[in-house]
Amino acid sequence: MIDGYGRSINYLRLAVTDRCNLRCHYCMPEEGINYIPRKELLSYEEMLRLVKLLANQDVHKLRITGGEPFVRKDLIHFLEAVRHQTNVQSLNITTNGTLCKPYLDTIEKLQFNSINLSLDTLDKDRFFQIARREGYDEVMDVLDAFSLMDTHLKINMVVMADSNLEDIIPMALLAKEKDIAVRFIEEMPFNGGTHRDKQNIWDHKDINKHLEKEFGPLQATDTKHGATATTYKVKDFKGQIGIIPAYSRTFCGLCNRLRITAKGVLKTCLYDDGVFDLKGFMRNGANDEDLLLAVKSALLHKAKDGFQAEHNRSGNKLMESMSTIGG
Ligand code: SAM
Ligand code: SF4
Hints:
Helix 1 packs parallel to helix 2. It is built from 11 helices and 12 strands. The protein has 327 residues and is of the alpha/beta class. A hairpin with a 4-residue loop joins strand 10 and strand 11. A 12-stranded mixed sheet has the order 7-8-9-6-5-4-3-2-1-10-11-12. The site of iron/sulfur cluster has 13 residues, from helix 11. Iron/sulfur cluster binds next to helix 11.
């Protein structure tokens, strides 16, 4: 799979639901969310078909995301099917962790290549202020459990000038004692229309400065091809810290990914507003060859970077919730 700029596309991010049990204020409004009706969500059979098809075309890295993936009933069986019935080589998941506890044994058996655990604070009260739902104790439990598994654990923290700056250093220090990656993400406007103070957004340079004040000059390690995070090794740290310039979009040149939203829309960039209705096409009887052709031709028009994709949107602002995109 090659895009119009000659970039090899080998990474699929699949949103299995747009629903979530939390209401993180940078992601979605607290109330009044219009969830996609269930019959408009891709079924597991449809998802498995797409994953198989793409994995056979060397899209061998898959990340399951959402919404909160574990909100969707029978997710574990879908994950097992992906592991055992497809050519996916690198299976990864992004989760808020709150619903994972009952599935820890199976999660371990699935041998995820990486688990991204989203956690924006280490303080219980602030967790509630940000997520607007309970769940802190559950996340802390699974953080410990995940860190003992044979998987690469990454903690993702969205940096918000008005909410969690005091958490940056304590969060980074988690990587001192444990061989995990702690990544700081720039806040993006994908929040379902919640008002946020744009003057008050910390970008990757602000985050870097703040970390350097504490830890001294940060030296970037070799960044993996297609990675969105710049990672740094800090002296005496077992793990790594990283910064994801999600809004500054400095990493787009080496993009290797495509996305499928929970309602089955293909996105060739996080910042586009959806380029092809795969679900509609499948439900109208498209065969595998047609489907592949549709994906390949969409990739030929993949934007050069997130700025171009934003420019090409059909007039609407960047205000959908990340939970509908599959962050
Ligand atoms: N519910 C799962 C979770 O929170 O990990 C998976 C879906 S969530 C949309 C995926 C990632 O997107 C999380 O790490 C979350 O912090 C991030 N995210 C959500 N809204 C964001 C925003 N407006 N700016 C930056 N990152 C955001
Ligand atoms: Fe839910 Fe994840 Fe969005 Fe938080 S970031 S509201 S956990 S989908």
